[in-house]
Protein backbone atom coordinates (compact mmCIF):
# COMPACT_ATOMS: atom_id res chain seq x y z
CA UNK A 1 0.00 0.00 0.00
CA UNK A 2 1.17 3.52 -0.69
CA UNK A 3 0.36 6.64 1.29
CA UNK A 4 -2.94 8.36 0.55
CA UNK A 5 -4.00 5.48 -1.71
CA UNK A 6 -7.41 5.85 -3.38
CA UNK A 7 -9.43 3.23 -5.17
CA UNK A 8 -11.89 2.33 -7.83
CA UNK A 9 -13.52 -1.04 -8.29
CA UNK A 10 -11.88 -1.46 -11.69
CA UNK A 11 -8.44 0.09 -11.21
CA UNK A 12 -7.08 -1.71 -8.16
CA UNK A 13 -6.80 -5.19 -6.77
CA UNK A 14 -8.92 -6.22 -3.83
CA UNK A 15 -7.25 -6.57 -0.45
CA UNK A 16 -9.55 -9.45 0.43
CA UNK A 17 -12.59 -11.34 -0.84
CA UNK A 18 -15.04 -11.99 2.02
CA UNK A 19 -17.46 -13.98 -0.13
CA UNK A 20 -14.76 -16.52 -0.98
CA UNK A 21 -13.94 -17.32 2.63
CA UNK A 22 -15.53 -20.29 4.41
CA UNK A 23 -18.25 -19.42 6.86
CA UNK A 24 -18.40 -19.82 10.58
CA UNK A 25 -15.30 -19.93 12.74
CA UNK A 26 -13.07 -21.40 10.01
CA UNK A 27 -9.34 -21.10 10.55
CA UNK A 28 -9.04 -19.28 7.22
CA UNK A 29 -11.59 -16.63 8.13
CA UNK A 30 -10.13 -15.92 11.56
CA UNK A 31 -6.62 -15.83 10.09
CA UNK A 32 -7.82 -13.33 7.51
CA UNK A 33 -9.27 -11.10 10.20
CA UNK A 34 -5.92 -11.15 11.96
CA UNK A 35 -4.03 -10.37 8.75
CA UNK A 36 -6.24 -7.40 7.99
CA UNK A 37 -6.01 -5.99 11.51
CA UNK A 38 -2.22 -6.24 11.44
CA UNK A 39 -1.38 -5.42 7.82
CA UNK A 40 -4.36 -3.80 6.11
CA UNK A 41 -6.80 -2.30 8.62
CA UNK A 42 -8.61 -0.35 5.87
CA UNK A 43 -9.21 -3.07 3.28
CA UNK A 44 -10.89 -2.88 -0.11
CA UNK A 45 -13.16 -5.69 -1.33
CA UNK A 46 -14.66 -5.94 -4.81
CA UNK A 47 -17.68 -7.92 -3.55
CA UNK A 48 -21.13 -6.37 -4.08
CA UNK A 49 -19.86 -3.43 -6.11
CA UNK A 50 -16.92 -2.67 -3.85
CA UNK A 51 -16.57 -1.43 -0.28
CA UNK A 52 -14.04 -0.84 2.49
CA UNK A 53 -13.72 -2.94 5.66
CA UNK A 54 -12.56 -1.65 9.04
CA UNK A 55 -11.29 -4.44 11.28
CA UNK A 56 -9.47 -2.79 14.20
CA UNK A 57 -11.49 -2.22 17.36
CA UNK A 58 -10.51 1.45 17.75
CA UNK A 59 -11.41 2.25 14.13
CA UNK A 60 -14.75 0.44 14.22
CA UNK A 61 -15.72 2.08 17.51
CA UNK A 62 -14.77 5.55 16.27
CA UNK A 63 -16.67 5.08 13.01
CA UNK A 64 -19.75 3.89 14.91
CA UNK A 65 -19.48 6.96 17.15
CA UNK A 66 -19.23 9.39 14.21
CA UNK A 67 -22.73 8.85 12.87
CA UNK A 68 -22.65 12.09 10.86
CA UNK A 69 -19.58 10.96 8.90
CA UNK A 70 -20.45 7.25 8.71
CA UNK A 71 -24.13 7.38 7.80
CA UNK A 72 -26.64 4.56 8.05
CA UNK A 73 -29.28 3.52 5.55
CA UNK A 74 -27.41 2.02 2.56
CA UNK A 75 -26.64 -1.72 2.89
CA UNK A 76 -23.73 -3.36 1.11
CA UNK A 77 -25.82 -6.37 0.15
CA UNK A 78 -28.92 -4.96 -1.51
CA UNK A 79 -31.99 -5.81 0.53
CA UNK A 80 -34.49 -3.26 -0.81
CA UNK A 81 -37.22 -4.29 1.57
CA UNK A 82 -34.88 -4.09 4.59
CA UNK A 83 -33.07 -0.86 3.65
CA UNK A 84 -35.78 1.42 5.08
CA UNK A 85 -36.14 -0.21 8.48
CA UNK A 86 -36.74 2.29 11.28
CA UNK A 87 -34.90 3.43 13.32
CA UNK A 88 -31.71 1.70 12.17
CA UNK A 89 -31.76 3.27 8.69
CA UNK A 90 -32.22 6.80 10.03
CA UNK A 91 -29.55 9.37 10.81
CA UNK A 92 -29.54 12.36 13.18
CA UNK A 93 -31.66 14.21 14.05
CA UNK A 94 -34.55 11.96 12.92
CA UNK A 95 -33.03 8.84 14.47
CA UNK A 96 -33.18 10.14 18.05
CA UNK A 97 -36.89 10.91 17.81
CA UNK A 98 -37.76 7.32 17.04
CA UNK A 99 -35.31 5.79 19.51
CA UNK A 100 -36.77 7.88 22.34
CA UNK A 101 -40.22 6.63 21.40
CA UNK A 102 -39.14 2.96 21.37
CA UNK A 103 -36.57 2.72 24.18
CA UNK A 104 -39.11 2.51 27.02
CA UNK A 105 -40.51 -0.77 25.70
CA UNK A 106 -37.17 -2.52 26.26
CA UNK A 107 -36.19 -0.64 29.44
CA UNK A 108 -35.28 -2.54 32.60
CA UNK A 109 -38.77 -2.42 34.12
CA UNK A 110 -40.26 -3.85 30.93
CA UNK A 111 -37.67 -6.65 30.84
CA UNK A 112 -38.20 -7.45 34.52
CA UNK A 113 -41.92 -7.82 33.90
CA UNK A 114 -41.31 -10.06 30.89
CA UNK A 115 -38.76 -12.37 32.55
CA UNK A 116 -41.18 -14.80 34.27
CA UNK A 117 -42.98 -15.39 30.97
CA UNK A 118 -39.73 -15.98 29.10
CA UNK A 119 -38.47 -18.33 31.79
CA UNK A 120 -41.62 -20.42 31.50
CA UNK A 121 -41.19 -20.54 27.70
CA UNK A 122 -37.55 -21.59 28.05
CA UNK A 123 -38.45 -24.48 30.33
CA UNK A 124 -41.27 -25.57 28.03
CA UNK A 125 -39.09 -25.64 24.92
CA UNK A 126 -36.14 -27.34 26.64
CA UNK A 127 -38.17 -30.10 28.28
CA UNK A 128 -38.71 -32.38 25.23
CA UNK A 129 -35.00 -32.32 24.39
CA UNK A 130 -34.06 -33.00 27.99
CA UNK A 131 -36.48 -35.93 28.22
CA UNK A 132 -35.20 -37.40 24.93
CA UNK A 133 -31.58 -36.99 26.00
CA UNK A 134 -30.51 -35.55 22.68
CA UNK A 135 -31.74 -33.51 19.72
CA UNK A 136 -31.14 -30.50 17.54
CA UNK A 137 -30.96 -27.54 19.93
CA UNK A 138 -31.45 -25.07 17.06
CA UNK A 139 -34.83 -26.34 15.89
CA UNK A 140 -35.93 -27.42 19.38
CA UNK A 141 -34.98 -24.26 21.22
CA UNK A 142 -32.77 -21.59 19.62
CA UNK A 143 -35.28 -20.80 16.85
CA UNK A 144 -38.65 -21.07 18.65
CA UNK A 145 -37.66 -19.48 21.97
CA UNK A 146 -36.74 -15.98 20.66
CA UNK A 147 -39.69 -16.07 18.28
CA UNK A 148 -42.03 -16.75 21.17
CA UNK A 149 -40.29 -14.09 23.26
CA UNK A 150 -40.81 -11.56 20.46
CA UNK A 151 -44.48 -12.47 20.26
CA UNK A 152 -44.75 -11.88 24.02
CA UNK A 153 -42.99 -8.51 23.77
CA UNK A 154 -45.42 -7.40 21.07
CA UNK A 155 -48.49 -8.88 22.82
CA UNK A 156 -49.21 -11.19 19.89
CA UNK A 157 -51.16 -14.43 20.26
CA UNK A 158 -48.90 -17.21 21.49
CA UNK A 159 -49.50 -19.11 18.24
CA UNK A 160 -47.89 -16.30 16.22
CA UNK A 161 -44.37 -17.48 16.96
CA UNK A 162 -44.76 -20.67 14.89
CA UNK A 163 -45.40 -18.58 11.79
CA UNK A 164 -42.33 -16.46 12.51
CA UNK A 165 -40.13 -19.56 12.89
CA UNK A 166 -41.35 -20.91 9.56
CA UNK A 167 -40.67 -17.60 7.85
CA UNK A 168 -37.05 -17.59 8.95
CA UNK A 169 -36.65 -21.25 8.09
CA UNK A 170 -37.77 -20.36 4.57
CA UNK A 171 -35.13 -17.67 4.29
CA UNK A 172 -32.47 -20.10 5.48
CA UNK A 173 -33.56 -22.58 2.80
CA UNK A 174 -32.98 -19.80 0.27
CA UNK A 175 -29.51 -19.24 1.69
CA UNK A 176 -30.54 -15.64 2.44
CA UNK A 177 -30.05 -14.95 -1.27
CA UNK A 178 -31.10 -11.27 -1.75
CA UNK A 179 -32.90 -11.83 -5.06
CA UNK A 180 -34.91 -14.77 -3.72
CA UNK A 181 -35.66 -13.17 -0.35
CA UNK A 182 -36.73 -9.85 -1.85
CA UNK A 183 -39.13 -11.65 -4.17
CA UNK A 184 -41.16 -12.94 -1.23
CA UNK A 185 -40.49 -10.52 1.62
CA UNK A 186 -43.58 -8.45 0.86
CA UNK A 187 -45.71 -11.57 0.93
CA UNK A 188 -44.36 -12.65 4.29
CA UNK A 189 -43.17 -10.07 6.81
CA UNK A 190 -44.99 -7.07 5.43
CA UNK A 191 -48.24 -8.95 5.02
CA UNK A 192 -48.00 -10.34 8.54
CA UNK A 193 -47.10 -7.01 10.12
CA UNK A 194 -49.76 -5.15 8.14
CA UNK A 195 -52.34 -7.55 9.58
CA UNK A 196 -51.11 -6.95 13.13
CA UNK A 197 -51.15 -3.17 12.63
CA UNK A 198 -54.73 -3.33 11.37
CA UNK A 199 -55.71 -5.32 14.46
CA UNK A 200 -54.09 -2.76 16.76
CA UNK A 201 -55.84 0.12 14.99
CA UNK A 202 -59.15 -1.64 15.44
CA UNK A 203 -58.48 -2.77 19.03
CA UNK A 204 -55.60 -0.77 20.57
CA UNK A 205 -54.00 -1.93 23.79
CA UNK A 206 -52.46 0.24 26.49
CA UNK A 207 -49.86 2.38 24.65
CA UNK A 208 -47.77 2.56 27.82
CA UNK A 209 -47.09 -1.19 27.70
CA UNK A 210 -47.90 -2.29 24.15
CA UNK A 211 -45.26 -1.24 21.65
CA UNK A 212 -47.34 -1.26 18.49
CA UNK A 213 -50.24 0.59 20.15
CA UNK A 214 -47.72 3.12 21.44
CA UNK A 215 -46.26 3.62 17.97
CA UNK A 216 -49.72 4.06 16.47
CA UNK A 217 -50.60 6.64 19.14
CA UNK A 218 -47.30 8.52 18.87
CA UNK A 219 -46.53 11.72 17.01
CA UNK A 220 -43.22 12.79 15.50
CA UNK A 221 -42.84 16.54 14.92
CA UNK A 222 -46.51 16.95 15.76
CA UNK A 223 -47.74 14.45 13.18
CA UNK A 224 -48.95 10.86 13.62
CA UNK A 225 -46.87 8.15 11.99
CA UNK A 226 -47.93 6.93 8.56
CA UNK A 227 -48.84 3.30 7.97
CA UNK A 228 -45.64 2.89 5.95
CA UNK A 229 -43.55 4.19 8.85
CA UNK A 230 -45.25 1.88 11.34
CA UNK A 231 -44.69 -0.98 8.90
CA UNK A 232 -40.96 -0.17 8.65
CA UNK A 233 -40.67 -0.17 12.44
CA UNK A 234 -42.48 -3.50 12.59
CA UNK A 235 -40.24 -5.09 9.96
CA UNK A 236 -37.13 -4.16 11.93
CA UNK A 237 -38.60 -5.51 15.16
CA UNK A 238 -39.41 -8.84 13.53
CA UNK A 239 -36.09 -9.21 11.69
CA UNK A 240 -33.73 -7.92 14.39
CA UNK A 241 -35.73 -9.47 17.21
CA UNK A 242 -35.30 -13.02 16.03
CA UNK A 243 -32.45 -13.94 13.66
CA UNK A 244 -29.46 -12.59 15.58
CA UNK A 245 -30.78 -13.74 18.96
CA UNK A 246 -31.41 -17.25 17.63
CA UNK A 247 -27.84 -17.28 16.33
CA UNK A 248 -26.44 -15.97 19.63
CA UNK A 249 -28.27 -18.72 21.50
CA UNK A 250 -26.95 -21.38 19.13
CA UNK A 251 -23.33 -20.24 19.37
CA UNK A 252 -23.66 -20.10 23.17
CA UNK A 253 -24.92 -23.68 23.23
CA UNK A 254 -21.99 -24.74 21.06
CA UNK A 255 -19.61 -22.98 23.44
CA UNK A 256 -21.12 -24.85 26.41
CA UNK A 257 -21.11 -28.21 24.63
CA UNK A 258 -17.45 -27.96 23.64
CA UNK A 259 -16.19 -26.59 26.98
CA UNK A 260 -17.03 -28.88 29.91
CA UNK A 261 -14.97 -26.66 32.21
CA UNK A 262 -17.24 -23.72 31.45
CA UNK A 263 -20.28 -25.84 32.23
CA UNK A 264 -18.82 -26.86 35.59
CA UNK A 265 -17.94 -23.28 36.48
CA UNK A 266 -21.34 -21.87 35.57
CA UNK A 267 -23.22 -24.62 37.38
CA UNK A 268 -21.13 -24.03 40.47
CA UNK A 269 -21.30 -20.24 40.20
CA UNK A 270 -24.51 -19.32 38.29
CA UNK A 271 -23.94 -15.67 39.17
CA UNK A 272 -21.25 -15.74 36.47
CA UNK A 273 -23.79 -16.42 33.72
CA UNK A 274 -24.38 -12.73 32.82
CA UNK A 275 -20.62 -12.29 32.39
CA UNK A 276 -20.46 -15.48 30.32
CA UNK A 277 -23.22 -14.13 28.06
CA UNK A 278 -21.11 -11.07 27.31
CA UNK A 279 -18.07 -13.20 26.52
CA UNK A 280 -20.04 -15.51 24.24
CA UNK A 281 -21.34 -12.45 22.40
CA UNK A 282 -17.85 -11.01 22.06
CA UNK A 283 -16.12 -14.09 20.76
CA UNK A 284 -18.93 -15.19 18.42
CA UNK A 285 -20.59 -11.83 17.43
CA UNK A 286 -23.81 -13.04 15.74
CA UNK A 287 -23.93 -9.99 13.45
CA UNK A 288 -20.42 -9.93 12.03
CA UNK A 289 -20.58 -6.50 10.40
CA UNK A 290 -22.82 -3.61 9.39
CA UNK A 291 -22.60 -1.12 6.56
CA UNK A 292 -22.17 2.64 6.62
CA UNK A 293 -21.67 5.24 3.89
CA UNK A 294 -19.17 8.04 4.40
CA UNK A 295 -20.53 11.53 3.87
CA UNK A 296 -17.13 13.20 3.46
CA UNK A 297 -13.61 12.13 2.56
CA UNK A 298 -11.90 10.22 5.39
CA UNK A 299 -8.14 9.71 5.73
CA UNK A 300 -7.36 6.58 7.72
CA UNK A 301 -4.14 4.59 7.95
CA UNK A 302 -2.75 6.18 4.81
CA UNK A 303 -5.83 5.54 2.69
CA UNK A 304 -8.54 7.85 1.44
CA UNK A 305 -12.14 6.75 1.75
CA UNK A 306 -14.10 9.00 -0.59
CA UNK A 307 -17.47 10.56 0.18
CA UNK A 308 -20.13 8.13 -0.99
CA UNK A 309 -18.01 5.02 -0.46
CA UNK A 310 -19.50 2.17 1.54
CA UNK A 311 -17.67 1.00 4.64
CA UNK A 312 -18.21 -2.24 6.56
CA UNK A 313 -17.77 -1.91 10.31
CA UNK A 314 -16.53 -5.40 11.11
CA UNK A 315 -17.61 -6.24 14.65
CA UNK A 316 -16.49 -9.86 14.31
CA UNK A 317 -12.88 -8.85 13.66
CA UNK A 318 -12.87 -5.89 16.09
CA UNK A 319 -14.10 -8.03 18.98
CA UNK A 320 -11.00 -10.22 18.63
CA UNK A 321 -8.53 -7.33 18.46
CA UNK A 322 -5.62 -7.90 20.89
CA UNK A 323 -5.27 -4.12 21.27
CA UNK A 324 -8.68 -4.08 22.96
CA UNK A 325 -8.88 -7.50 24.66
CA UNK A 326 -6.25 -9.52 26.49
CA UNK A 327 -6.08 -13.07 25.14
CA UNK A 328 -8.75 -12.23 22.55
CA UNK A 329 -9.16 -15.75 21.17
CA UNK A 330 -9.73 -17.26 24.63
CA UNK A 331 -13.24 -17.54 26.05
CA UNK A 332 -12.87 -16.03 29.53
CA UNK A 333 -16.29 -16.12 31.16
CA UNK A 334 -15.32 -13.82 34.03
CA UNK A 335 -13.51 -11.30 31.83
CA UNK A 336 -13.29 -8.15 33.94
CA UNK A 337 -13.50 -5.63 31.11
CA UNK A 338 -15.59 -6.58 28.12
CA UNK A 339 -16.54 -3.56 26.03
CA UNK A 340 -17.46 -5.69 23.04
CA UNK A 341 -19.44 -4.38 20.11
CA UNK A 342 -21.63 -7.38 19.35
CA UNK A 343 -24.61 -4.99 19.65
CA UNK A 344 -22.82 -2.16 17.86
CA UNK A 345 -21.86 1.15 19.42
CA UNK A 346 -23.05 4.74 19.41
CA UNK A 347 -26.52 5.92 18.51
CA UNK A 348 -27.27 2.78 16.50
CA UNK A 349 -26.44 0.36 19.30
CA UNK A 350 -29.01 -2.42 19.05
CA UNK A 351 -32.44 -1.41 20.38
CA UNK A 352 -33.17 -4.99 21.37
CA UNK A 353 -29.92 -5.61 23.29
CA UNK A 354 -31.69 -5.75 26.70
CA UNK A 355 -34.12 -8.33 25.33
CA UNK A 356 -31.37 -10.44 23.76
CA UNK A 357 -29.33 -10.40 26.98
CA UNK A 358 -32.39 -11.46 28.98
CA UNK A 359 -33.16 -14.35 26.62
CA UNK A 360 -29.57 -15.58 26.66
CA UNK A 361 -29.27 -15.38 30.45
CA UNK A 362 -32.54 -17.18 31.05
CA UNK A 363 -31.70 -19.86 28.47
CA UNK A 364 -28.30 -20.60 30.01
CA UNK A 365 -29.66 -20.56 33.56
CA UNK A 366 -32.40 -23.05 32.73
CA UNK A 367 -30.39 -25.54 30.66
CA UNK A 368 -27.47 -25.57 33.10
CA UNK A 369 -29.75 -25.98 36.13
CA UNK A 370 -31.45 -28.99 34.53
CA UNK A 371 -28.41 -30.86 33.22
CA UNK A 372 -25.21 -32.39 34.52
CA UNK A 373 -23.63 -32.63 31.07
CA UNK A 374 -24.08 -31.06 27.65
CA UNK A 375 -22.08 -32.46 24.72
CA UNK A 376 -22.11 -32.48 20.93
CA UNK A 377 -24.03 -35.37 19.37
CA UNK A 378 -22.93 -34.58 15.81
CA UNK A 379 -21.07 -32.01 13.71
CA UNK A 380 -23.89 -29.52 13.05
CA UNK A 381 -23.98 -26.94 10.26
CA UNK A 382 -22.69 -23.39 10.66
CA UNK A 383 -24.01 -20.35 8.84
CA UNK A 384 -21.74 -18.30 6.59
CA UNK A 385 -21.43 -14.61 5.89
CA UNK A 386 -22.67 -11.71 7.97
CA UNK A 387 -24.80 -13.78 10.34
CA UNK A 388 -22.80 -16.04 12.64
CA UNK A 389 -24.72 -19.03 13.93
CA UNK A 390 -25.87 -22.60 13.31
CA UNK A 391 -28.68 -23.99 11.17
CA UNK A 392 -28.56 -27.24 13.14
CA UNK A 393 -26.57 -28.37 16.17
CA UNK A 394 -27.17 -31.88 17.59
CA UNK A 395 -26.60 -32.05 21.35
CA UNK A 396 -26.59 -34.84 23.89
CA UNK A 397 -27.77 -33.85 27.35
CA UNK A 398 -27.80 -35.64 30.71
CA UNK A 399 -30.52 -34.52 33.11
CA UNK A 400 -29.74 -33.93 36.75
Structure commentary:
The chain has a single domain, classed as Cytochrome P450 (Cytochrome p450). The protein is 48% helix and 12% strand. β8 and β9 form a beta hairpin. Strands 1-2-10-7-3 form a five-stranded mixed sheet, with helices on one face. Strands 4-14-11 form a three-stranded antiparallel sheet. The termini are far apart. It contains 15 helices and 14 strands.
How many H/I helical runs?
A: 15
CATH architecture designation? Orthogonal Bundle
Beta strands, count: 14
Q: Class by helix and strand content? A: alpha+beta
* CATH class group: Mainly Alpha
Produce a short descriptive summary.
This protein is α+β, with helices and mostly antiparallel strands. It is built from 15 helices and 14 strands. It has helices at residues 27-39, 57-65, 94-103, 108-132, 137-142, 144-153, 160-173, 178-202, 211-217, 227-240, 243-257, 260-268, 273-284, 315-318, 353-369; strands at residues 42-45, 51-54, 70-71, 134-136, 219-220, 223-224, 290-294, 298-300, 303-305, 310-313, 371-376, 381-382, 390-392, 394-399.
Fold topology:
Layout lengths: L26 H13 L2 E4 L5 E4 L2 H9 L4 E2 L22 H10 L4 H25 L1 E3 H6 L1 H10 L6 H14 L4 H25 L8 H7 L1 E2 L2 E2 L2 H14 L2 H15 L2 H9 L4 H12 L5 E5 L3 E3 L2 E3 L4 E4 L1 H4 L34 H17 L1 E6 L4 E2 L7 E3 L1 E6 L1
Parallel strand pairs: 2-10
Antiparallel strand pairs: 1-2, 3-7, 4-14, 5-6, 7-10, 8-9, 11-14, 12-13
Helix pairs in contact: 4-6, 4-15, 6-7, 8-10, 11-13, 11-15, 13-15
